Amino acid sequence: MVVGASAAGLAAAETLRREGYDGTLTLVGDEPHAPYDRPPLSKQILSGEWSTQQLPLRAYADLDALNLDLRLGLAATGLDVTDRTVRLANGSGVPYDGLILATGVRPRRLPGEGAHVLRSLDDALALRDRLSPGRRLVVVGAGFLGAEAAAVAWRLGCEVTLLEPAPVPLAHAVGTEVGRVLSQAHLDHGVNLRTGVTVAEVTEDGVRLADGELVEADEILVAIGSLPNTEWLTDSGLAVGDGVVCDQYCEVAQGVYAAGDVARWHNPLFGVAMRIEHRTNAAEQGMAAARNLLAAPEARRPFAPVPYFWSDQYDMKVQAYGYLRGHDEVAVVEGDLADRRFLAAYRTGQRLTGVLSVGMPPKAIRAWRQAIAGGATWREAVRPENTATEVA
Amino acid sequence: MSMRVELDVPKCVASGQCVMAAPDVFDQRDDDGVAILLEEHPGDELLDEVREAVAICPAAAIRLVDQ
């Protein structure tokens, strides 16, 4: 049984079938839609470039071929690991032999009513319908989601204000210098980026800042991060703490695995516990969890990926490999920050732990991914004078 | 019966995941990284790699179909 019918849950279900599991396979999802892709929501769906027809993760025929007991529009509400039963919102119980948890995250919200969030297809369509030239949109939070939405709204002709509590957007994720370069793009396009600004609440007329100022808006998008969907596991006895806590095999308890945004697992490649809200991780971890669930204990493999994400903002394509959080040093190894065309390397301890590129040919970054996957030291990968253009 | 690979180019996000999964079947354009289909009818020995690429593509842009 797989709980959660988005990228991670679907990847898990597909992998169970590919690996030869031919028994009953129940896939439960709380949204009414067939599994669909989320990254386009803040890009092509919000802009109107794509119709919702382009969003399903799989063609109907491919989904049908999986022979699933597919239960959509139905949330899981409880788990009994002793009886091996998942309780659903309609009161029914589904017994399982093996279980994969992939319930994802939901947006954090602010006090007050009337603001948009952007996580589901319904969220994206509701916001899209309200964006038209001249409308005033306030986006709270200048992380990747907020930045993408601001860029799309700007392109649609909206008057966009982007409010961010940190002095430099994304600094915690990509470092101060890179964060500054990415956020400069907002200013260059005429988006009113205000940093060091804390929003206290949503009101009828806009958002109220902590210092009492009202920032007026026709529409408000709150993009201040996510919370893992673990409440339904509270009485299960499973370890929960900013996600479902797993070991390096993605195992939570015997016969129970987790994958995707909700899973906090130990990544042995970096030697730290992490929870990754990236699209590629959802698929990779769904596949890994499914394989380990089916494997004999000695045949299981640790899940040790190099995380990858991309973001499209204005004319910039941002791509990054690795684990950038908590880095000690950033060095520009190709290109130039000021041109918004560069490749930056990230050092944590003695290791090369990440790379981020903007406006560079995507093929170029793959060599760096290999270096991270191979556990390259900073000294091996980046020349001491930090002007390297090749990977050792 | 052989299998055919379908690549939905407009959906591609240039992540290169398909190239890593199935390097004999996919490549990336040099300039923008968009995927290139090298082998529309891969041999049986490549199908597992292609299925891996289908599963791992973050844009759901690859299909493997019976024909």
Describe it for me?
The complex is a heterodimer of chains A (392) and B (67). Chain A is an alpha/beta fold and 392 residues long. Chain A has three domains: 179 residues, FAD/NAD(P)-binding domain; 114 residues, FAD/NAD(P)-binding domain (3-Layer(bba) Sandwich); 67 residues, Enolase-like, domain 1 (2-Layer Sandwich). Chain A contains ten helices and 26 strands. In chain A, the strands form seven sheets. In chain A, strands 3-2-1-7-19-18 form a six-stranded mixed beta sheet, covered by helices on one side. Chain A has a five-stranded antiparallel beta sheet with strand order 22-23-26-25-24. In chain A, α1 packs parallel to α8. The longest helix of chain A is centred in the C-terminal third of the chain and has 16 residues. The C terminus of chain A is likely disordered. Chain B is of the alpha+beta class. Chain B has a single domain, classed as Alpha-Beta Plaits (2-Layer Sandwich). A two-stranded antiparallel sheet of chain B has the order 1-4. A two-stranded antiparallel sheet of chain B has the order 2-3. In chain B, β2 and β3 form a beta hairpin. Chain B is globular, with a radius of gyration of 11 Å.
